């Protein structure tokens, strides 16, 4: 008896946009007087990597399940054929 276990993976797809404000401290020497200038740089980071990894993992799980089922079916068929020949 072949039992197929179906694994359902629910993936929540979302994109998070992070605005990171990085303060860059620039030291400027003007006529032997040290002037410290703080420059704010906005960096936009889009987080999509987690979603992609989850999707890839889901695809890998499905492929592995399919391969295992195919191997089991082939083994069963080979065993049945051997038994029938004997």
Distance between the termini: 22 Å
Helix % is 40-55%
> What does the main sheet amount to?
2 strands, antiparallel
Backbone CA Rg: 29 Å
Number of helices: 1
Could you list the spans in which at least 5 consecutive residues all have pLDDT below 50?
Answer: none
Topology as H/E string? EEH
Number of domains: 1
**In terms of structural class, how would the helical and strand content be classed?**
alpha+beta
**Overall pLDDT level:** 67
Describe the structure.
By secondary structure, the protein is α+β, with helices and mostly antiparallel strands. It has one domain (16-85). The chain is 43% helix and 35% strand. The chain is built from one helix and two strands, in the order ββα. A two-stranded antiparallel sheet has the order 1-2. A hairpin with a 2-residue loop joins strand 1 and strand 2. The protein is rod-shaped and about 100 Å long. The model has no long low-confidence stretch (mean pLDDT 67). Keywords: Membrane, Transmembrane, Transmembrane helix. The chain crosses the membrane at residues 6-26, 33-55, 61-84.
SSE blueprint and pairings:
Elements: E1 16-30, E2 33-47, H1 49-85
Antiparallel strand pairs: 1-2
Q: In a nutshell, what does this entry contain?
A:
With 86 residues, this protein is an alpha+beta fold. 43% of the residues lie in helices and 35% in strands. It has one helix at 49-85; strands at residues 16-30, 33-47.
Which key terms come to mind for this protein?
43% helix, alpha+beta, rod-shaped, 2 strands, transmembrane helix, 86 residues, single chain, two-stranded antiparallel ribbon, membrane, transmembrane
């Amino acid at each position: 008896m072949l039992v197929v276990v179906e694994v359902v993976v629910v993936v929540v797809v979302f994109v998070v946009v992070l605005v990171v404000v990085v303060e860059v401290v620039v030291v400027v020497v003007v006529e032997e007087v040290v002037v410290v200038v703080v420059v704010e740089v906005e960096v936009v980071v889009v987080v999509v990597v987690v979603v992609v990894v989850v999707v890839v993992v889901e695809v890998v799980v499905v492929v592995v399940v399919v391969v295992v089922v195919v191997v089991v079916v082939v083994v069963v068929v080979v065993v049945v054929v051997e038994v029938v020949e004997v």
